[in-house]
Amino acid sequence: MSGILQRGLKSGLSLTWMLGKIIFPVTLIITIIGHTPFFPIIIDWLEPLMKLLGLPGEAAVPLVLGNFSNLYAGIGAIITFDFTVKEVFIMAIMLSFSHNLLIESSIASKVGVSWWLISGIRIGLAVISAVIINLFWSGGQEMAQYGLISSGPEPETWGGILYLGLETAVIAILQLAAIVIPLMVVMQWLKEKGYFTVMSNWLAPFTKILGVERNASMTLVTGLTIGLAYGAGLMFQAVQEEGISKKDMTLVLIFLVSCHAVVEDTLVFAPLGIPLWPLLLIRLITAIILTATIGLIWNRMELHKRKDTTAHEHTYTSV
């Protein structure tokens, strides 16, 4: 057990260090830029587009960073601005569906699934979910409280701005470490005790709902627990060993880009003061409905194609 704990702590500290190297400079730089005269000009230019999503112009910064970098860069940007709970929740949903596009969507192309298809689905889900939440949720108008990060008086000197950026970045990393390190210890324990295999066996019947074969269950478990970027190696291995078809791999990835790393990608938003269960449920339900619908249509099309081919062969033989 002590060996598992050590390896889990090592993984957690390594991941915290890696993510900290993203969050720290992003938070610091955006805090400084946010106090320059150019920033309001950029925000005014983006504001009409953001209003369609129920967001202020400043929201473009975490959304762009989250999509082109990763989820943690987006969170690092969120904590540098004052947003309402509703605005943070909308951004959290959008970033949950669509983040780290260049890397995570490229992983899909490695197993033969179109980068453009996966990226289009992710961006589409992000935009549609934002519009729906904005239209139908009237709550969350109070200002979001970012854990230990509290908003004080605006600094008036460059020294004060720099101190504010450093303080915000350090607190953000400490809060992240409090979530990531215990999480990685638990993941290490689950992996070494063989519980991933157990979960794969549990999940096998669920694959029928998605319209894929049972041999895709290990890929689903890997993506749901570890995520696309960190679980890429295990996912590639599962694809090769289990002989998953291109159709099933496409459906699995459609599910996973909608809902992956469900524990980590949900808990990282805890310091932002938003409701986490709705965040998780929206992702999970969306992934199930979207994948099951596409799987149903795809399987029916294949069935009709086989019937047409059989009928054609029968006609040809008769002639």
TrEMBL record:
<protein>
    <submittedName>
        <fullName>Nucleoside recognition domain-containing protein</fullName>
    </submittedName>
</protein>
<dbReference type="InterPro" id="IPR011642">
    <property type="entry name" value="Gate_dom"/>
</dbReference>
<feature type="transmembrane region" description="Helical">
    <location>
        <begin position="21"/>
        <end position="43"/>
    </location>
</feature>
<dbReference type="Pfam" id="PF07670">
    <property type="entry name" value="Gate"/>
</dbReference>
<keyword id="KW-0472">Membrane</keyword>
<feature type="transmembrane region" description="Helical">
    <location>
        <begin position="115"/>
        <end position="137"/>
    </location>
</feature>
<feature type="domain" description="Nucleoside transporter/FeoB GTPase Gate">
    <location>
        <begin position="17"/>
        <end position="99"/>
    </location>
</feature>
<feature type="transmembrane region" description="Helical">
    <location>
        <begin position="280"/>
        <end position="298"/>
    </location>
</feature>
<feature type="domain" description="Nucleoside transporter/FeoB GTPase Gate">
    <location>
        <begin position="174"/>
        <end position="263"/>
    </location>
</feature>
<feature type="transmembrane region" description="Helical">
    <location>
        <begin position="218"/>
        <end position="239"/>
    </location>
</feature>
<feature type="transmembrane region" description="Helical">
    <location>
        <begin position="157"/>
        <end position="187"/>
    </location>
</feature>
<keyword id="KW-1133">Transmembrane helix</keyword>
<keyword id="KW-0812">Transmembrane</keyword>
